[in-house]
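Objective 1.3, modelling of assemblies. Example input:
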Amino acid sequence: MVSKIELSSRDRRRQSIISIAKAIFLKEGYGAASMSHIAAEVGGSKATLYAYFKCKTDLFAAVVESISGEFSGDAITADLARGDLRDDLLRTGLRLIAFIRQPETMAMQRLVIGEAERFPELGQVFFETGPRQKLNQISSYLQKAMDEGRLRRADPMLAAEHFFALCRARGHHRMLWNVGPRPSPEEMEQEVRAAVAVFCDAYAPHLAPLNAAP
Amino acid sequence: MVSKIELSSRDRRRQSIISIAKAIFLKEGYGAASMSHIAAEVGGSKATLYAYFKCKTDLFAAVVESISGEFSGDAITADLARGDLRDDLLRTGLRLIAFIRQPETMAMQRLVIGEAERFPELGQVFFETGPRQKLNQISSYLQKAMDEGRLRRADPMLAAEHFFALCRARGHHRMLWNVGPRPSPEEMEQEVRAAVAVFCDAYAPHLAPLNAAP
Amino acid sequence: MVSKIELSSRDRRRQSIISIAKAIFLKEGYGAASMSHIAAEVGGSKATLYAYFKCKTDLFAAVVESISGEFSGDAITADLARGDLRDDLLRTGLRLIAFIRQPETMAMQRLVIGEAERFPELGQVFFETGPRQKLNQISSYLQKAMDEGRLRRADPMLAAEHFFALCRARGHHRMLWNVGPRPSPEEMEQEVRAAVAVFCDAYAPHLAPLNAAP
Amino acid sequence: MVSKIELSSRDRRRQSIISIAKAIFLKEGYGAASMSHIAAEVGGSKATLYAYFKCKTDLFAAVVESISGEFSGDAITADLARGDLRDDLLRTGLRLIAFIRQPETMAMQRLVIGEAERFPELGQVFFETGPRQKLNQISSYLQKAMDEGRLRRADPMLAAEHFFALCRARGHHRMLWNVGPRPSPEEMEQEVRAAVAVFCDAYAPHLAPLNAAP
DNA sequence: AATGAATGAGAGTTCATTCAT
DNA sequence: GATGAATGAACTCTCATTCAT
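Predicted structure (tokens):
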């Protein structure tokens, strides 16, 4: 008797292929990663690869699906509403940045952005399972804060996007372009603090709505 | 005797190769662009290509160098300080976004971000000749505004980065990921207006400095 | 105990494999037909195929043997001698042509002729069980007609071959080469009529034997 | 200065590739002949092959075109009208049969018939450049003979097809199926003689037209 | 008896690169 | 200086076949 959580041998092998292929795709990019190389790392023959995935694109799609699953974890925005506004945003901003700074996540972003023209679904899938969900959660949180008068009324989704953008403004932007030294965790925290401060001032409740559509 | 401005026949040919190769690299990416294809478009033989550039990487490097020159035009921030703060920022933000939305610029960003790990100088060169210069100019402008009391005191470079980030927050972010429909010029303007509003409120002079290190 | 007519489960499965393989070999040719494809159509695994036939060649041989059985039906020449000479020949010629024009028979001819060099027994088996038998029957019939003075004396087998060749002269010849449009049943009948007329005139009894060796 | 008849080095190489590929295609069939094998026989690399022909199909097409050229020689029907009817037909029939019995021509027929379904142009090209031309010439000749009263009036093209079919009736038919021993030249001559006799009797002038449409 | 899984060999094709002319 | 021709290595993908279960 096999419980739901147990994987058949085939599924296990499949997962292992995906996992190895993921590493290679991330490291070398879609075009430069070869099926031979992947097969060799997997420890099987090319034909075996093709017994599991009918073409390179399909393997890539499975990798994409697999990674995108990882992005949908709620760890980042789990206890978004816990303390006061600034604390909540700081905690969340730090987690967001910590996540998108991870080497693997960076590689993913490079891959997706680099191939977005040639694999249009790629960006779609990732955005939906990654940033979109975080934005949704932050947006809901901000909406509530607006309802409670802790922030001025404004389009909450756009506000969430502004918040996210402010967090990424310096360090992540430079990492994407791979320019300058990797920012240290301290710098990173500095930047998120600054982002939170700017955001809170901009969306402070004492002024009339500002980014609402006219 | 040849003056500095005149190009030898060899240099002219070289330029023409670079220009054609640029278009192809931008359209197809580094890996997918083939020397055969480039040679065919140039109208010469592959061997001729190799007479000018000793390998594909070198040709790519030359293309990169060439493009980086184009990004240094001052049109975007030319008359940055012309009217009142909001007008200046709006005008500049619109030009920034209009520029980075151009198909060719988008292709460049994809190429550079996608290959940044494998061609580390790529991002460096681009950031220095592109965004960095704009950020410098905006930063100077903001510094002056702070000096004049039209904005609160804060790290002007970080402020410039915040401004840039707010402008890119929604539309450009999605274009990078190639998700959803291409934003219309009207939406784009809306977003820049919102960015300017948020920025000005955050950096309004009536409050204590906020993004300074504590 | 299993009587001759009953098939064991194994034999039944074997037959079903042969029957499906036949269809695929006929449609795709020997080289292009893949064991995977056959196994998939059979509904079993490739390993099962190999449990019944030790290699592709053997499976093909079994298919060949099987088909050759089907060609020995007597429908074509069943009531060869029924009326007058012309009627008998017309009826028989029409049936012959109708038979060899069938898509499956055409596919068979292509397969056998195309692979005859690489599978020499193929042609042998087919000729013996197919054309040879028809030729024998027609030959016997013509022999009798000669004995009765309705045809001049001649080598009856060669006469039969001439008759068959005349029937195939135009339409079937072009179908083999796959040239021009598929002849209609009307054209086909025209051609057989012409063949019968030419044959009967050539072998009319009022002249001396003509195809006898001089 | 290069005369029309001389071939450039490229053309010569191309011809040599075609000639070697021809031998291999004829011997192994289209599917079983591999580009690697052909390249090896040519003495170059596969990439060179692809510099001359952009895919296997194109190389095959070039081979087909080349062979079909060989079929259009007029040697067979050159001096068709030289003596009396029987002599002319005998001479022509013998040449026809001698030609289509050549090993290379047999291989070609197998190839074309075997692949006719998958390469429909194949049969077309061959029939047009091969049999069709001979049939046209024989048909013209028969037309004249009919005009002169040496043969009865009838559709001359059908008559030509009948003549050709009678010549192929036994020996060539069996060679196509690769059944029985290869007929000797003597047998072959016997058969053509018989074919001529049958044809002449059938189309003798003393009877009413017979294969005309009713 | 049946099968899912595995594989070496080889298919057609393209690549960046070199070299004699 | 320019080129046509050549190539080895690598690519994605498929094949007939085997073996542990």
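Chain B touches chain A through 54 residues (CB under 8 Å).
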